[in-house]
Amino acid sequence: MEMVAAAEVESIGVNLTPPLSPLSYSLHDSFLLSHCASCFSPLPPDPHPSLHPLLYCSPSCSSSHSPLHLSSASHHLHIHLSQNPYDGQTSDLRAALLLLLQIKSHHPFKQYDRICGLMSNRHQLLMSNHDDEFSTRIKNGARAMAAATMMRDGISDSNLSEEYLLEEAVLCVVVTNAVEVQDRVGRSVGIAVYNISFSWINHSCSPNACYLFLPPESHGDGQRFLITPASSNGRQPIQLSPNSQFLTESTEIHGGPRVVIRNIKPIKKGAQITIAYTDLLQPKELRQLDLWSKYRFTCCCNRCIAVPPTHVDQCLQTLTTASCNDVGIENLTEYINDAIDEYLSSNNAESCCKKLENTLLNGFHYEQLIIRLNPQNHLSLNAYTTLASAYKVRSMDENLLHSKKMKRFSAAYSLLLAVVTHKLFLSESCLIASVSNFWIGAGESILDLARNIMSDCDSELQSFNCLKCGLIDVFESDFVNGQSPKRVLDISKMFINCITDVFPKVWKFLVHGNSYLEVVKDSIDLLMNVKEIKGGEERVELLWVGVHCLLYGGVLMNIFGGKDSHLSCYIRGLVYGGDAKDCGE
């Protein structure tokens, strides 16, 4: 099944749907004590942590979710799982039990391959041998669900059988259709399953739409559906009213994060609507592996079948080594991934920085070759992301000079990540979300450094207004409603032109003393023609570049996320002052 455009949408950043309520949802295990179980919003730190398995931010959230949690038998899961561990996120099981509750309450069950209009993909997920890890997890999860519902109904689990076809099918629906719900800093805090108006949207590695999450109180009064299911004999849209039963076939429940679809490219009437199910900054091989492991399908979108590969995919795999076999690349990949995993597990930031920077600077030695990565290679991008984090950790040092140096390097890697991926974004507009986050991260990191060395940074921020590009006016305007892609490119050019003269000076200040960063400029146009910095000049220019990066990232973010999103509010807090962290929460 697929969804297509019900009308032509020439501009970008348009809501294609009203906010949609979930059919089922659940927090991931690690966020049960830090986030509201209903709306997924973060909770304030509790000096006396509760032993209750679920927490809520308000009485309304409690009243909307707690009865569902109890009725679905989710609270009985831990008893069975304490004796029969489940190799996976128990959020899948809780979401599946909630969905199962609704199916039995509101819908006669007729088949296992499609439930509430959603494909279960059951045959594909369980077609492997019985010792297959994925298949085994589904079967064990279905058994745990059955045990929980029997305990709820007062039935002895000694009556458990060997087959739980309904539970397996519902769990497969969740695995196939659930989407990771992210908070404003990009962390995946839980999952949610939505009705067919969302779940029938297919994947593409070059999508024309994206989705964002809104709080439960977001209603979108007056908004209409600009997408509709395609007819069975082609892509001609079925004409439906906004309140069509076909679009709301399943019973939506109270609470849970709402989702809205927005377009990031112009769309012709009848054209298929697509979103991304995976990280688009991965090369084709990794995207396909991720899609197969999670959803059991192989993507055949235009980007994946392009011969030769698209410019973006070529860049993501580019090496500066003349020749190298697959084994050498696999060894390099394993080395970098191991260094990153070691840092994430042990928090040994200094060791991680040494390993990654040595590889980036001197290459990876394999047999008689030295394999060198291009700055736009996906392994380089992963390394930059990790190095920005690792140097930030190292900046938490009592030695002020050392702390400042680490902050400089962290800001430099954040900025490098934004610059490198921005060039990819100009070739592939679907990367807008990633690039926006990178520019925002760079701006935030640079402003943090500026505050560290400027006593009057906040007062300078409040008076900031660049007349050359007017980014702050663009950020606050409603330009995202009804604007053409050309307008976005014009804004991008204004931003680049505005910081070009200042950027090289700031870059030289940020990277001074880092062997890799001092030479990485070779393939980045913005870093050419580096000039000397005069004494003290870098302070004002840091502020200038930091605010520009923050606002430009915010302008891009407004397109796919809306001007009233949590992140947009957060950016206003950083620029105008105030407690940005609490903004919108």
TrEMBL record:
SUPFAM superfamilies: SET domain (SSF82199). It holds the Pfam family SET. PROSITE patterns: SET. It comes from the Eukaryota. Residues 121-278 form the SET domain. This is SET domain-containing protein.
